[in-house]
Design brief:
The protein has 343 residues and is of the alpha/beta class. It is 43% helix and 17% strand. The mean pLDDT is 96.
């Protein structure tokens, strides 16, 4: 498959030299806002920005790319971002429009793919509340949003990373940090992947949740029938996708997330885009900045090293995914590139 010049550059920037995505997210908003409000007295912009800057300073040397939000992390801590790392920027608001039929994802007012590209980012991240059994009007809204973002990413030739999340119907609107829907069924995650793998959406990287709830996931090496069933769900995800996919942590604790990653990497995932599993325990040291930084170094960084070892042992580079079986071929990469490239 041929790939456009900008998207090819994006994928190379977001991954490491081996073709793995070792990406770290610091775009979390409600949970950090709540933490600062509780301990500082208000969700102060500078305090939130300072938390994100510390995380960027400590973690970016060990990531292939960083995911930043445009509300706090990028405007406050842009100078802390290592220009040798890839940069993903969030498009969506965390808040959503919720009704009896489900949740509709909203984009920040005035924010756009064009602005993300213009500031120099390598990719656009869209988190999408999604249930295949949501009301028809909700599904129509969500499908149209992803199609529009995919179209704009093609127009601006930048990678599009989609993060679909299952949520409980009839729950309260998303106002705090995302918590995994403990009642989700693996079939929902599979049906979501099956929908958004369609070419009309233009997804370049899938950021996926575990099909089996983190709270009940068994050790992949315990030899049990349940471990075999769990691996089969992850294998089915990989069988559906010809493009790269990475795992999200959804705030899972370190050990459950290690288990999730092991299943995913063995199935064919090309990496991870994780945040709270790596740094949330350290963030709870706030406002003791020295203790916060020390805990990132003493606990967060060794965990990053552990999951990167798992990835190197079991993961599959994005360059080996079926879409690129014929090798990486840049679209219009011949002598007429200057004339044909659309930009």
């Amino acid at each position: 498959m041929q790939i456009s010049a900008g998207k090819l550059w994006s994928l190379r920037r977001l991954s490491d030299a081996r073709g793995f995505f070792t990406m770290i997210a610091v775009d979390q908003r409600p949970g950090v806002e709540q933490l600062v409000a509780e301990r500082h007295g208000s969700p102060d912009w500078e305090e939130i920005g300072r938390i994100k800057r510390l995380l960027i300073e400590e973690l970016s040397p060990f990531a292939s790319a960083m995911l930043l939000d445009p509300q706090y992390a990028f405007p406050y801590a842009h100078l802390a971002v290592d220009p040798a790392r890839g940069l993903l920027i969030t498009l969506e608001q965390f808040a959503c429009e919720e009704g009896p039929g489900g949740r509709k994802t909203l984009v920040y007012p005035g924010w756009s793919v064009a602005k993300i590209k213009r500031l120099g980012a390598d990719g656009v991240k869209l988190m999408l509340w999604y249930r295949p059994d949501a009301a028809p009007d909700v599904l129509a809204h969500q499908h149209a949003l992803v199609e529009r973002v995919g179209r704009e990413c093609r127009e601006h030739d930048i990678a599009f990373l989609l993060e679909p999340l299952v949520y409980p119907l009839g729950g309260s609107a998303a106002g705090d940090s995302y918590h995994e829907d403990a009642g989700k069924r693996p079939e929902m995650v599979l049906a979501t992947v099956e929908e958004f793998r369609k070419e009309r959406y233009g997804i370049d990287i899938f950021k996926l949740e575990t099909p089996v709830a983190a709270a009940v996931i068994v050790d992949p090496d315990d030899g049990s029938a349940e471990a075999a069933r769990t691996q089969a769900w992850f294998d089915r995800i990989d069988a559906l996708l010809d493009r790269p996919w990475v795992m999200l942590s959804a705030g899972a604790a370190m050990e459950p997330f290690r288990r999730i990653l092991t299943y995913a990497f063995r199935a064919g995932a090309s990496g991870y885009l994780a945040g709270r599993a790596i740094w949330w325990p350290a963030a709870l040291e706030y406002p003791d900045w020295d203790a916060f930084r020390a805990r990132v170094r003493e606990h967060g960084l060794p965990y990053v090293s552990l999951v990167q070892s798992l990835l190197a042992q079991h993961g599959r580079p994005w360059t080996s995914k079926p879409a690129f079986a014929g090798g990486l071929v840049m679209e219009d990469g011949g002598p007429d590139f200057l004339r044909h490239y659309q930009g």
